[in-house]
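[User]
Um, tokens okay?
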Amino acid sequence: MALAHSSVRPITHIDIWGHILDKSEKVAEQVPKKCPDITVVAITDLESAAGQADIISCATGAGEPLILGEWVKAGTHTDFVGNHSPNRRECDTALIIKASVFVDNRVNVLTEAGELLIPIEEGAFSKGAVKAELPELARGQHIERKTEEEITVFKTVGTALSDLAAACFVVDKLTS
């Protein structure tokens, strides 16, 4: 995730957090090998780091929210890619309510993702509140961010099409 974001953004510092510090430290050691101009630090204070972050990427199987809306500052982009269960989530309802929400695929996310399904069940969010899905963003049918202060959430559960595209890319690279 860190390498993907840094490939399209001028990122100079990344904090890595995980439940097990040793594993976070191992991940933090890997990024500078590919991007030596980025400082990477394994951290223990998730709340503080989240409150300072411009981008938050979460890729876990968390059952309970790890990122709380009250921590996230104005202008932050968040993406949540790890959870694919309707009764689990990586962020809380407060973040979903205060953010503009984008998804990879409405049908899949609104079937599988607790990040949105739980707030919908609580009556705090609606399916119609999803701003756009990835193909709409890619085609320029929706402007990603309206203001510098807008908080954005991107939720993905993956699709067979993206898996196929990734596989084709790898096969092409290996056979070229």
